[in-house]
Amino acid sequence: MPDPDLTTPLSVLAQSEPIAPLVGIVMGSDSDWPTMEAATVALDEFGIAWEADVVSAHRMPEDMVTYGRQAHARGLRCIIAGAGGAAHLPGMLAALTPLPVIGVPVPLKYLDGMDSLLSIVQMPAGVPVATVSIGNARNAGLLAARMIAAGDAGLTQKMLDFQASLRDLAMAKGEKVRL
Ligand code: RP5
Fold first, then answer.
1. Which of 41, 82, 84, 157 lies at a 20 to 30 A Cα distance from 35?
2. How far is ligand 1, taken at its centre, from the CA of residue 39, in Å?
3. What is the maximum alpha-carbon separation in the chain?
4. Residue ranges per structural domain of the chain
5. For residue range 24-76, what is the model confidence (pLDDT) as tens digits?
């Protein structure tokens, strides 16, 4: 049961329906939101409650520490963290929380997101971040859904149905090129 003193996040940029969020989505800047929003779409498809906010590792380090320290006690089950450039947010949160952290490398104007990718993926042993491909916040949302679905028969069935729909889609694409 989450501590009632810790049930309110620092602030909220956006959130799903007002029930206790299971997934916390944070990003270094509101300029990351157009990329990160795809995670919320994926979570909505599975009916998983989320919250989203800007928690910058470099511009608001103390708030980042508070977010990371409180996330578990607030009832979150997973954190999705996106950042661009020198993208330290996912790794720092992984150091602060026992929750699984999924990192989203946000592509910026220069270097095509390779800087973000390498900043997030090269974590030292002992502090894991599950890094998705550059800009792929949808996969971050789907991976979070799989984590939440583990041990939940209803959500697992939804994931199986979703995977079957991917096969149907791929088969339909094949029809277009098959003789
Ligand atoms: C990073 O710096 C943020 O995650 C963002 O991707 C990037 C640029 O931020 P803004 O200058 O647009 O606020 O920390």
1. 157
2. 18
3. 64
4. 4-152
5. 999 999 999 999 999 999 999 999 999 999 999 999 999 999 999 999 999 99
Domain 4-152 CATH class label: alpha beta
**Helix/strand/coil percentages in the chain, nearest 5:** 50, 15, 35
Instruction: Give the span between the Cα atoms of 156 and 32, in whole angstroms.
Output: 30
Give the pLDDT confidence of 145-167 residue by residue, as tens digits.
Answer: 999 999 999 999 999 999 999 99
32 lines ligand 1 (CB under 6 A): yes
The two three-digit tokens of residue 6, written as one number: 């810790």
d(CA 179, CA 164): 24
Whether ligand 1 lies within 6 angstroms of the CB of 120 is answered as no
Q: Using CA atoms, how far apart are residues 25 and 27, in angstroms rounded to an integer?
A: 7
Total-model pTM: 0.90
